[in-house]
Amino acid sequence: MEPSQAAAKLSALAVYRDVAEQQPVMSAVTMLAQAVALKDGPTALLSYSRVFYLLAQAGCDTLGQWVAQALRWSEGPYPTAVARGCCSAVLEQAARHDVDTLARLAQIPSEVWLEEIRSYLPPEQRDGVEGLPRWSGEAPFSFETLTQAYREEGAGLLARYPAFVWEDGTLVPVANPDCPTGEQLMGYESHRSRVVENTRALLAGKYVNNVLLYGESGTGKSATVKHLLTLPGMEKLRLIEADKENLSGLPALIRSLDGHPLKFIIFIDDLTFDRDDPTYSVLKTILEGGVERRPQNVAVYATSNRRHLVRQTISERAGDEMDRNETIREKTSLADRFGIRILYEGLRRDEYLALVDQLAAQQGCPLASEELHRRAIAWERHHGSTTPRTALQFVLSL
């Protein structure tokens, strides 16, 4: 491809319009190509400098490197269709044409662009071209490798990021989620193994149970869920965290995930409902669905300090026994919709002290064992729990 042809070729892109129109780098390249086509040297020079600046800002050494990333994370019709296994021959042909066009654009070395720009500049401005930065011409991608990646790993933000926060009907990506490693987790190995086993079944394509982790605060319920992203073999797992207050849009989100090659955990942390909470019925629908069945690649994991999730008032326990029993059954039925329910209790005294010993050794604490245990017990009595969080807070206080 000659630089003078680039503007016309870019305007003919039909499938990857998101790459051509919604990315600052490609907008600058288009301006460069148009200026060259019009033989407007000063504008082309300015556009060239802007292209290099935006490439550097994006952390890319070459235009081809940037194009490869833009194509891989595109959410256009072709990547989306391939990810869902429903791509037509017409769409595939159009996408192949676009990828070929972008590959030939990326293969134009910057020297060729600069030669064109120099020829259109006034003589007194041509010397300024010599000091401009360069990039090499390369296309480190192919239509076949891109298609395979879409098919196996999905497309767009869902493929690019491991975790998301659901806020006001929008998925907000989390590039570096706070996920504890196995070395940072303390105790409850058998509890975590049940969660891991269920998650690996999800990744294997099985229809799995929703999971409720409930019990004492500070025992590592949330950490158990977030830890999943650090395990080998979980590369196709995505974690979507949603607050209880933002559940209303989740059914539509879950519906949109159906058929995606990735697997998704909808994570609801610290789940507790008040009486007549409007989101109560929304969660019931999410857990068991109405006419629609929950997609096979989606599961709901929740944590709570309450076994039955719904706060019960004194007035609900009084009155007619039949009404009281019906109220209790209604409120416990929500927890029953989680096929796996795991209780996290406080550690036994000996387990708590053993954990204190372990953490103290890691921190280089000089206290003798007897004095360390005496202080640890006093701390536990003051704070009212024998949990990993209590043990860690005690050791950090020394």
Tally of helical runs: 19
Please give the radius of gyration in angstroms.
Answer: 29 Å
Instruction: Estimate the helix proportion, in percent.
Output: 40-55%
Biggest sheet character: 7 strands, mixed
Strand content is 5-15%
Q: Which tags fit this structure?
A:
7 strands, elongated, 52% helix, alpha/beta, seven-stranded mixed beta sheet, 398 residues
What does this structure look like?
With 398 residues, the protein is of the alpha/beta class. It is built from 19 helices and 7 strands. A 7-stranded mixed β-sheet has the order 2-1-4-5-6-3-7. Helix 14 links the parallel strand 5 and strand 6. The longest helix is centred in the first third of the chain and has 18 residues. The radius of gyration is 29 Å and the shape is elongated. The termini are far apart. About 2% of the residues have low confidence.
